[in-house]
Design brief:
The chain is an alpha/beta fold. It contains 20 helices and 14 strands. α2 crosses α3, α11 crosses α12 and α15 packs antiparallel against α20.
Length: about 550
């Protein structure tokens, strides 16, 4: 018996009782939610409030009468619950221990596939991380990479076919700026007084790239005109930096199916062809020699130029092509953008609607990050060249801590990342706290006899589970499929980080209150079974976040 099955049986029985007690009443919706305080039960429904007016009685009286009717008229349903109590108009229910034992048996049986859904036949294009190819990945990309990677894992767990992609913004003036900045660093190797462009990229990361060119080409480019060296230096810088970005993403545990070059969309004719498609749909007009998209008709605050008066497509014009290509090959498109892109939400959604794909595009904004080291804020300024790269963060705190910390809060919430806390071996460090839970379980299983562990794995002794801490942990473990589905439904990967901490907390509480390696064989093996299930769920949720599950710490 699954928890959802028990709740569905309860809801059906209540609906039948309402129909009998209050004839003519419209079908009621018996919905459940977790009470604010766990001592009130596993779930609660407020159905009595919707009936109070019809019954001409207080919600609490209605709830009490429904509970009495249920116990008398549907005892087979009431037997699925350890408690059914009317409280202040709500009906609070606590599922019978057998329901949670059944869930532990399912976890032991299914292992890492517990709750995994069958393929839905729905393809999702998920784009995140995309940074200009003008520098190394920095902290804000770390957050979008962690959020996007976690969301991709959760969506796949729920049966979606996820195609992960990155747009390389290698068209436009930033490429010329990169080329001039790299050329200046190259020239300074031969003449330290050579001026650096005022609007150039001042970071030290260009120095090693310039050194490679100087080592390979010598002074070949010193006396050449800009028209000769600019394309070469822009392309060399782009290719080198994109390769470095790809290496960092891979180090961070995020793999992409496609690195889409914006320049290739231009050179392949996609940009002009897809803009022409928008024109043919009647969603453009010309003014002062430029071509405008009627964006204001689709939720934007104004119309947008997509082809300039000199015939060059704008950045937004390229967005049309990129998103049209994504929408054609996917059932749904999700973009995760960095801070200061709120204006793009309606702009991109309106574009999807204009292209004939209304409601098929979602846009998330990953908010700003403040880096701290204890009580001291870490200064970051890209314009001044004082950047903290994602690789710097990984060198200092490791991939596990970075993936977990970046994913901890909702995407639309600013994040404070304490680098000092991230490396502490204490319960205050959330990733350590969760990983310690997994390692503690591994230690318990190592100290138990192999025969006991094997017997526990069979699930034959679960009837011995009945202590409050045991059932609380079992209930929490059973939530994994529902939590991951919530992540997919609401595009909220931070829920996984919270759930991981909740599981670890419930296990630590169980470990404190219930001695595991007791003398009595049935109880010992039942508790070892609960340990095995907790270890499996913790490993799975950590894997979804992109964090390892160590056997020792």
């Amino acid at each position: 018996m699954l928890p959802d099955d028990a709740l569905a049986a309860f809801a059906g029985a209540i609906a039948d009782l309402v129909g009998e007690r209050y004839p003519g009443t419209p079908t009621v919706n018996v919905a459940f939610e977790a009470p604010r305080r766990p001592e009130f039960g596993d779930f609660a429904t407020n159905v009595a409030f919707s009936l109070a007016k019809v019954a001409r009685r207080s919600p609490n009286d209605v709830a009490a009468s429904l509970v009495a009717d249920l116990r008398e008229r549907a005892p087979h349903v009431a037997a699925l619950f350890a408690a059914i109590d009317p409280v202040a108009g709500f009906i609070n229910v606590r599922l019978a221990p057998v329901v949670w034992r059944t869930q532990i048996a399912a976890i032991l049986r299914d292992g890492e596939d517990f709750g995994r859904q069958a393929p839905r036949g729905e393809r999702i294009s998920l784009e995140f991380g995309s940074a200009n190819p003008t520098g190394p990945l920095v902290v804000v990309q770390g957050r979008t990479l962690s959020i996007g990677g976690t969301l991709a894992n959760a969506l796949r767990y729920c049966g979606y076919d996820v195609f992960v992609e990155w747009i390389i913004n290698d068209a436009g003036s930033q490429m010329d700026t990169l080329g001039r900045s790299l050329y200046a660093r190259y020239r300074q190797r031969f003449d330290a007084s050579y001026p650096f462009p005022e609007e150039g990229y001042p970071g030290e990361y260009l120095g090693p790239i310039a050194a490679r060119i100087a080592e390979r080409d010598g002074e070949q480019w010193v006396d050449e005109p800009e028209r000769a060296w600019l394309p070469y230096f822009a392309a060399f810088g782009r290719d080198t930096l994109v390769a470095e970005q790809q290496a960092t993403a891979k180090r961070f545990g995020v793999d992409y199916d496609l690195w889409q070059s914006e320049r290739e969309l231009h050179e392949g004719g996609n940009v002009l062809a897809d803009i022409e498609h928008l024109r043919n749909l009647g969603h453009t007009y010309e003014q002062d020699g430029a071509l405008f998209f009627r964006a204001s008709e689709f939720g934007d605050d104004k119309d947008r130029v997509i082809i300039r008066s000199d015939g060059r497509p704008t950045y937004y014009g390229a967005d049309i092509a990129y998103h049209y290509e994504k929408l054609k090959r996917a059932d749904r498109v999700i973009d995760i953008l960095g801070p200061d892109h709120h204006g793009y939400i309606n702009r991109l959604k309106g574009l999807a609607e204009a292209l004939g794909y209304p409601g098929r595009l979602d846009v998330l904004i990953a908010q700003q990050i403040t880096l701290m080291r204890g009580n001291e804020q870490v200064s970051m300024s890209k314009r001044a060249g004082n950047i903290i790269t994602l690789d710097d963060i990984l060198d200092e705190v490791g991939v596990d801590a970075a993936r977990f910390f970046f994913a901890m809060l909702a995407t639309d919430s600013p994040l404070t990342f304490d680098l000092k806390l991230a490396v502490e071996a204490s319960s205050e460090n959330p990733v350590y706290y969760v990983q310690y839970g997994h390692a503690r379980i591994a230690s318990v299983l190592k100290n138990a006899g192999a025969a006991d562990v094997e017997a526990a794995r069979s699930g034959a002794y679960l009837d011995a589970l009945g202590e409050p801490a045991e059932l609380a942990l079992a209930r929490r473990l059973s939530e994994l499929p529902r939590v991951v589905q919530g992540v997919a439904d609401h595009l909220a990967p931070h829920r996984l980080a919270k759930y991981a901490r909740d599981v670890a907390s419930d296990f630590h509480q169980f470990y404190t209150e219930c001695k595991i390696l007791v003398e009595e064989p049935a109880q010992r093996r039942a508790r070892l079974a609960l340990c095995l299930a907790a270890k499996s769920v913790l490993a799975r949720v950590l894997s979804l976040i992109g964090v390892s599950a160590p056997e020792t710490l």
